[in-house]
Amino acid sequence: MKKIVVVGGVAGGASAAARIRRLDEEAEIVMFEKGPHVSFSNCSLPYHLSGIVENSNRLVLMNPDSFESKYNIDARVESEVIKINREEKTVLVKNLATNETYEETYDELILSPGASPIVPKLEGVNLPHVFTVRNVVDIERLQQAIIEKDAKNIAVIGGGFIGVEVAENLRIANRNVSLVEFAPQILTPFDEDMVQILHKEMTDHGVELVVNDGLAKITETSITLNSGKEISADIVVLAIGVRPETSLAAEAGLEIGETGAIKVNQYYQTKDRHIYAVGDAIEVYHRLMHKQTRLALAGPAQRQARAVADHIYGMPTTNKGVIGSSSIRVFDLAAASTGLNERTAKQIGMNVDAVYIIAPDKVGLMPDSNPLHFKLIYEVPTARVVGAQAIGKGNADKRIDVIATLITMNGTIEDLKELELSYSPMFSTAKDVVNLAALVATNIMQGRFKQVRVSEVRDLVESHAVIIDVREENEFENGHLKGAKNIPLSRFRERMHEIPKDVPVYLHCRSSQRSYNAVMALENSGYENVWNISGSFLGISLYEYYRDQVGNRDPIMTRYNFK
Prior knowledge:
Blueprint: E1 3-7, H1 10-23, E2 28-33, E3 39-40, E4 60-62, H2 64-71, E5 74-77, E6 79-85, E7 90-95, E8 101-105, E9 108-111, E10 115-117, E11 130-132, H3 136-149, E12 153-157, H4 161-172, E13 176-181, H5 192-204, E14 208-211, E15 215-218, E16 222-225, E17 230-232, E18 235-238, E19 242-244, H6 247-251, E20 275-277, E21 284-286, E22 291-293, H7 298-312, E23 326-330, E24 333-339, H8 342-347, E25 352-360, E26 371-379, E27 385-392, H9 396-408, H10 413-417, H11 433-445, E28 450-452, H12 457-462, E29 466-469, H13 473-477, E30 485-486, E31 505-508, H14 513-523, E32 530-533, H15 536-551
Helix pairs in contact: 1-7, 5-15
């Protein structure tokens, strides 16, 4: 009879224990968790702050009694494994309730210690109104403090997934929220041209968003940033990031990898072949970057847990690495991404190009049809799809899941162009946004037309380039780029002679579809130096708006247009 000891619960440890039980009814399975809850929905923690998850008890998925009665698993909470004796194959356990220690033997050991929140060494971080969010206890303490203090002003430090979700839910609860991010943007899986949409969404819902500025110190009533800016704060939430819990593994002589996480092989075995590790504490292979990375996501942790259980019992397993797929809700918008963003791809030396399109998420006749912003990144010259991002009120995650599948299958833009997807006017369009992006990318790769990005438009306007707006006159009057000339597509052919042939010409409409037709009409009429502005006026408005607000810049348009 095998004896399996699991250190840590939640997505990695609990999933491994449950899978082992399904494979072996006779195995003795002991799971240690140093906190009071062995299985909880850590991804749902922020939603307790808004009342979406009203009762924090609902965050707890399984308790020790449930593990015992349903799975015959001995789950021991408030029990910290403080030492591993590899030679004797034992672990030293400290009962945190009694402070007693004892040894537990194992045949196979699975480490799933997770990752701990990063707390910077700054003045004031140990004050009682400063919190981090890792588990149910943390979120209960935070919520209790907010209620007891009747906290009006709350500062969230860090614009990653946890920071954004905490800020969003606190704002839903009618708190005054400031979100501070040291980097130039929140949510780094998104490229700069896409994330501006989320910046605007945060500020539109009353969040004071501060980017490109870091925390310097905390006082009892405020925080001070590196710039000297002072923000009132009754409560401070640190969501700067996480650090893998590696001390137990390191003290046992297990190898720590180049990323600072536990090094494992393709079967998630450590240096000791009887000790496995999964979850946020390990480094994993990124199949697109061809290097080790860290990925603190529940889905990969659960797959790792299953692979470990299967390997222990001699079942074949595959390890295809990770690509990093994620999604988040930001107030009224869904945002999702997969694979590499354009910035990262170029940083690692990959030759890529990208298309940014705006298309309806469902047939425009439907009352809840809304624009979906979609960016597709592909390798040149192979046309291999390496990443995508989607933001909109509709099913952004559905589109990204399609691309994640394609990336896993080493698909190309040609594969995506021909991909047959389900269609109903209530759910999508006959030519879905992912197909449309592939068509645009194919045209770009084949040199059928040229594009410029929304990030390049300010330079065009300030250099007095020839810009043609092909929207109808009423659209133009409601807001347009300064210096642009309006030639509506409906009158384009009769007025084509007004467009010069001896200088570069840049065309746009609302979302780039009409201007694409105008570009092709010009090219087929002998024009050679014409460019379509990807994203067009809607994309330009969204890209410029937040940057104009924080930079105190003069707008390059007479009026923004977000519809």
